[in-house]
Amino acid sequence: MNTELIRKIVKVSGVTAGELILVQFWGEDSDIDIMHNFAVAVAELGASPFELQQSRTHNRNVFTNAKRTSFDDKYYSIFENVDAVIDVFIYQPVVLKHEITAEQMDCYKNYMKKLFESLMKKKRFTQIRIPSIENALESNLSAEEYIDRMTKAYDIDYLKLKEICEEKINELEAAKEIILHTGNNCSLKLVTEGRTWIADCGDGDWPCGEVYIAPIEEETNGTIFYNKLFIEDTGVFENVILTVEAGIITNSNHEQVNHFLESLLKENLTVCELGFGCNENITSMCGYTVLDEKMHDTFHIAIGDNRMFGGKNKADFHMDLVGAGKVEMVK
């Protein structure tokens, strides 16, 4: 990721003069310049960068030798004055990928738990996936395609994106209900009255570019058609119709999809989100939800937990299901 793109991302993330910004970097020494470049971009905006590297190699060595007295409350107190976090990862965060004893792993997990409890309280927690070979592994795309798609998704006109998101929300806020018309005769009604639309145009998960809401959970009803339904870690299924009753996905017209649905608890089958993609630099779906849900002119519903954005459904996971169709707004 070049320095100009890093500057653009840091500026849009909301960094302002006088803030203390933690730049947390998940990567090895060979890529340490990425962390430094983010820190420089923070300083250029008049804020103070505070660098923290989370290297798998170094963490293995540290927690192989750490004692019970290591990482007590004094350690976590150093983050008290941090205003916001820019969380940059060259590979999957937290996962150590090294063998250590069960006792050492407990110490490592406790460290990560307390660290994130501290950092998630900050006014912004911005996550940046670096377009890297390691990150490509979670996408089922080739490294070349992943890096190309991700770089394009990042390198957009963010002022225009903000305008697109704001216009979309102004349009959607006028509706009490949203009906998604898909396939030949499928319609799914979601009630949005009383809930708040949220724009993701730079201060959350990146690449950014969507507006979303937690619909009234028990009032979603109907059917929804997917030409291609991408289910993470399960497969890609064609011509799928999902049936939703009182907010719960009850069944589908596809045997393998039904097997997947039957493996989930009721709270994990609850339709918890409705969102619309707004990123014009994402021009086709590829099966990688991080990109697909931000693609301009797509919708997504999600199942699972939605308490972080105004809902009331408590669940142990969250999965987005991205599609395309006609949107009807009932005022």
Approximate helicity band:
25-40%
| Large-scale geometry | globular
**Number of separate helices:** 10
Question: How many separate structural domains?
Answer: 2
Number of E-type strands: 15
Sheet/helix structural class: alpha+beta
Beta-sheet strand percentage?
25-35%
Q: Topology of this protein?
A:
Blueprint: H1 3-12, E1 20-26, H2 32-44, E2 48-53, H3 56-65, H4 73-76, E3 84-89, H5 102-119, E4 124-129, H6 133-136, H7 143-154, H8 158-172, E5 177-182, E6 186-191, E7 198-200, E8 210-213, E9 221-231, E10 235-245, E11 248-252, H9 255-262, E12 271-277, H10 289-292, E13 299-304, E14 318-323, E15 326-330
Parallel strand pairs: 1-2, 1-3, 3-4
Antiparallel strand pairs: 5-6, 5-15, 6-9, 7-8, 8-12, 9-10, 10-11, 12-13, 13-14
How would you characterize this protein structure?
- One of its GO terms (molecular function) is aminopeptidase activity.
- With 331 residues, the protein is α+β, with helices and mostly antiparallel strands.
- It has ten helices and 15 strands.
- It has a six-stranded antiparallel sheet, with helices on one face.
- Helix 3 (56-65) crosses helix 5 (102-119).
- The longest helix is centred in the middle third of the chain and has 18 residues, at 102-119.
- The protein is globular and about 60 Å long.
- The mean pLDDT is 95.
